[in-house]
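pasting input
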Amino acid sequence: MRYRKIPNETVRRLPVYLRALHILGQQGKASTSSTDLADMVAVNSWQVRKDFSYFGAFGKPGSGYEIDGLKKQIARILRLDTEHKVALVGVGNLGSAVLAYAGFAPYGFDIVAAYDCDPKKAGKKIHNVTVESVAKLKDLRKTGINLAIIAVPESAAQQIADQLVQAGVKGILNFSPLHIQVPKRVKVITIDIAVDMARLPYYMS
Amino acid sequence: MRYRKIPNETVRRLPVYLRALHILGQQGKASTSSTDLADMVAVNSWQVRKDFSYFGAFGKPGSGYEIDGLKKQIARILRLDTEHKVALVGVGNLGSAVLAYAGFAPYGFDIVAAYDCDPKKAGKKIHNVTVESVAKLKDLRKTGINLAIIAVPESAAQQIADQLVQAGVKGILNFSPLHIQVPKRVKVITIDIAVDMARLPYYMS
DNA sequence: TTGTGTGAAAGTTTTCACAGCA
DNA sequence: TGCTGTGAAAACTTTCACACAA
């Protein structure tokens, strides 16, 4: 079953496996099994094996998966085998939290630029990144950054997205609710905290 | 097709429809169509109609859906027709951003308590909520709060989750990566920013 | 013996096409 | 005419069962 079309749901799980493997690696382990991985990320062992099978076989019957090799394979599939420079737009409460967040590093993301429309913030250094005016967004193209995080208020999100696309950004992580319009070639992933939270009561007994 | 089992994916979309309806209501509109709603949330019109059909018919052929009525219906299904008090644990960068976030209010969520393990923060008022020591978590049961947001570092998350379950919490929005172990009766929804971001490069041309 | 890889079956979700109401 | 509601088909995803490799 080599190199079939990878199901979307599998792609969604791959970063989770990657994080689990990262942790196992830090614990000094060299290999693991589909059962152990499954327990860590709360799926079934056959789901893990099936997911991996979409890009060909990685594991050894009897002994399991070699952690370093598997990490590299998954990183390559997700195109996380090279560093990605990221721009952040909106350095409010949420933006600052994003800048402080250490969780991006294991995936090879590095936030190297930050923009805010508040002139008082321009020039300030927050978590090692100097905040610039949003007017400077047009210079983004020269920097080779093609990933951006939008953490601005809802009302400004579409306008910022337009500017980012103009500046050559190809992928956007969007924290503002509802849909942002971009050309088809640009991928947007939206995280809406309230929308996710709103599902909780439904599932509570 | 009345009162069939509601697909999980439909439940995931309901809060999104709710937000769109909220906006339409604020714009002074009284009714809308499946096509308009679909455009706002980036799905197809037949998906919208199918989703609504799982709880019975709401709309009028020819004229569409009455916004207020539809909002109430969806809120009732999601059990968002009553206010929900929420406790926040972890008032760091992310926790503060959550406290400041206005997006919860339209769904009826109200963050009324905040806890942090840093004794220096105890007693401080942040965005109208007084921060308390995590030692006070055991008093949570008396307050009638059964929803919590975990915004603590990864290493403390499981321990906090255990305490929350002990205190009678039935639903948890978890910002720390990887899986948190809770009894089956408790629902956990995890938001992992980095894991979502990690899918972007795969989809970028 | 332990643990992988994978066809086939079962289950879920999306898409389509169209009947029918206002 | 405009727009809904829905059965049926198609597409996608998960689960199972088991052959087989170390």
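fyi The beta strands of chain A are 31-32, 65-66, 84-89, 109-116, 125-126, 129-133, 147-150, 171-174, 187-190.
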